[in-house]
Amino acid sequence: MKRITIKELAERLGLSPSTVSRALAGDRNIRRETRERVSRLAGELGYRPNPVAVNLRSGRSNTVGVIVPEMVTPFAATVIGGIQRVLYGRGLKVIIAQSDENPQTECGNLELMERFMVDGVIACPCDATRNGEIYRRIRQRGVPLVFYDRAPLRVDASRVIVDDFATSYFLMEHLVRRGCRRIVHLGGPAHIPNARERLRGFRYALGKFGFVSDGRSVIPAGVTFDDGRAAADELLRRMPDADGLFAWTDTVAIGAMNRLRELGIRVPAQMAVAGYSGTVLSTIVNPQLTTVEQPLDEMGCRAAELILEKIADPSAPDRTVTLTACIRERASTAR
């Protein structure tokens, strides 16, 4: 259906476009009869204001852009739920874009947010080494920016994170107390800060508990269920006597656990399996997955609060909010 424009309304009414625009805005300098004529015809024809034009006139869009790396798992949806609850309560809307773990797509999403003149951007970058220039450009143009979960170190902005290093260490401590002695880490891509910090926590724990860290104990994995399955095959090839597995995300952990069970490896009797994220996925697999549970709804709420602070006062200092994550012990690591 064709969009009705102010120009078309003006032609039908025999008025100038500026008069119609002012009448629609409720300008008291326009006669009441004229305002009523314009309003009546606009309603009959289904006229809707062009949001881009409105943004240009007001300098505000009352929208916040949210960039997520993926929408396959409940992780992003839970964070977005917290963001929306806070922003909707303040009269702001949310535009959501998915990068699909692709830096080029993420760049295009950011450029789209710029064109829509969003009042702020909340982002979980897919690659800490890419797109720094466009993020810095957004900041320089006065658009508030907040990172959550993943935060590139070379871009100044407020951020909401958890302590990936410490929680990974405590998860390893749990596996050791459970009785594991030959633990393997399925690590994430090096360009993701969380993956590096969780690997650092794993290695620190190995040293702390007196275990040898060799080339067999860390197996590169990606971000998908299939990546976890492939990593499980590699694990059994490299270290068939392993008795514990710590995957950098629940997605990879679940993929690996399913593959191990297909191959006849009993979880947890022969191999304890733990992940990191704490989404609902960890509770709907069999056995239920031990994981580091991040406060995802709170993460979204705090990110929204930070963006509101920066919108209200662009000169406000950047802040880092570190949330508390906890270890949920479940059947996948039971003694």
UniProtKB/TrEMBL annotation:
Any one GO molecular function term: transcription cis-regulatory region binding
PROSITE patterns hit by this protein: HTH_CROC1, HTH_LACI_2
SMART domains in alphabetical order: HTH_LACI
InterPro entries listed in its UniProt record: Cro/C1-type_HTH (IPR001387), HTH_LacI (IPR000843), LacI/GalR-like_sensor (IPR046335), Lambda_DNA-bd_dom_sf (IPR010982), Peripla_BP_I (IPR028082)
Pfam families the UniProt entry points to: LacI, Peripla_BP_3
Name the record gives this protein: LacI family transcriptional regulator
Lineage: Bacteria, Pseudomonadati, Bacteroidota, Bacteroidia, Bacteroidales
